[in-house]
Amino acid sequence: MANELTIPLLPCPSIDEIASFYQMLGFEITYRQTRPNPYVAVRREDINLHFFGMDGYDPAQSYSTCLVIVPDIGGLFEAFAAGMRSVHGKLLISGIPRMTRPRLRNDRYTGFTVVDPGGNEIRINQKGKQPEARTKLAKALENAARQADAHGDEPQGLKILEGALKRATGDEPEFQAVREYRDELVERINGAESLRP
Questions:
Q1: Contact indicator for 182, 162 with CB cutoff of 8 Å
Q2: Does residue 83 sit in the same domain as residue 170?
Q3: Chain CA centroid to CA 183, Å
């Protein structure tokens, strides 16, 4: 068989909020239903995502995720970031919704993650083999991103970066990327703490 199409069906508390969020990122609504069950489908080029509304659903408790493989993450990230900035005035990097930045690894950018209003993690990765980390700072950045972005453990990611920066000389190619990611994690941690009752 060939030319199969798989489309994830993800939960959300409100299809209206999901539709607005993805329209902000440049998606179009391809299907919408409110009765008998809330359902919305969105598409941007070949990326298709479908959502079903679920009463009482808590986005903070979501484990839903989806992997999207694209030929060029840079262009897609910039388009998503421009849409987010046009609506919110900035890139949302903490709380729900949010979007991580691509990470520099050996002069190539790795993927990024979009967390939508339903708490669903849409992981955007570049087609092909990801470059392996070659320096200590690149390895620390990779480990920190795995902890903070993939596992949601921002404090552990920050701890990894702080340790790496203490040992760094400042002339490594990833030094600035590590500092920027450290600052982002601090903002994400502080943002999460401010949302607590």
A1: yes
A2: no
A3: 17
